[in-house]
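FW: tagging you since you asked about this chain on Friday. Here's the raw sequence from the shared folder, copied in full. Didn't touch anything.
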Amino acid sequence: MPHEALSPVPDAGTPSEGRGGVRPPSAPPRRADRAGSPPASPGGSPYGPPGASPGRPRIAALDVVRGFALCGILLANVQPIASVTALRVDEPTAGAAETWMGLLVDQRFFPIFSLLFGVGFSLLLESATVRAAKPRPLLLRRLLVLLAFGAAHFLLLWQGDILSWYAIVGLLVLLPSTWLPRWAVAALAPVLVTASLIAQGERVMLIAGLFLLGSALTRYGVIGRIERSTRVPAVLGLVFAAAAAPALWWQTRTMSGDLRGFSSALALAGVLLAGTYVCALLVLLRTPARPVLRAVFAPLGRMALTNYLSASILVLGAARVLGLPLGRSWAAVFATAGVILGVQWLWSTLWLRRFRFGPMEWLWRWATWGRRPSLRIR
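HL: got it, structure written out here
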């Protein structure tokens, strides 16, 4: 079963995160230049909506979407992580559970995190532009620290780690893209995603394309308006769902033979279903279900880095210490994922009542800004 990849994105909308710009806040507003740079907002950033500042409130929808995706990531990763402890890797018994996992879970959630990483990167760049004379060294340091986290995770816990890949692609694609006008970033994103799908779902190109898509959405102000509309995500969700149906049919037709076709179908269906999931959540957040969704998913999303790394420890403990048959039983996989998510939700909820950030998020922020941020809520 292909593993999913989670990447915690930079906190969006927190007091020290924001969208990207290229001039200090004292620079006067101007119209778009020949390179396509947008006019500056009153807050001084040329990438975001008016009034953008380091003190903007969190964008709750991003926390909910991130937390929801974390649940799918863990469910997809339980068996691959547990296989690290096994001398012989056995796939769980085939059946309805495996079929539904292949259709609804596998490769459906890492596209969401890739998109969110691009969003968070541009949000952070704006804040760094407002707060620092040279913002890009802060972003470079942040990516290098993420690379260190990923390397440690890879060497000590699980070789399926994705953090190091996110850091590398961020260094090679996202950071250089900050010198490009937003129209160029928006144009490159679908090119890379399409190229990835043609190349049988090549992972690095897909990540890069989704990074740039998230960055472009932020720089055009879409993320700042993400919670203001019901019609747009509803229509987009229907489009994604309609397109996903034939992609899922193609995937089922190629599961038993054509490996090249299956890889492409899996990647295409994954991107389309990821879009469907995100749009469905955005619509539900405009309904009376919003408080429930925030209570369930936002704590997990706000501590995504901490929860991603701790999940590897907990899964390995369940397989090695408790001896659960995670490589042979889907019931054990589902039960383990449910228990771990329950523990992480309780831990995250209680922690965030007293502290502003998760433990790993706090360390990451400290390393990024070069000074220790306040952790306890006063």
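FW: The CA atoms of residues 22 and 266 lie 38 Å apart.
HL: agreed, and Residues 12-54 have pLDDT under 50 and may be disordered.
FW: great, closing this out.
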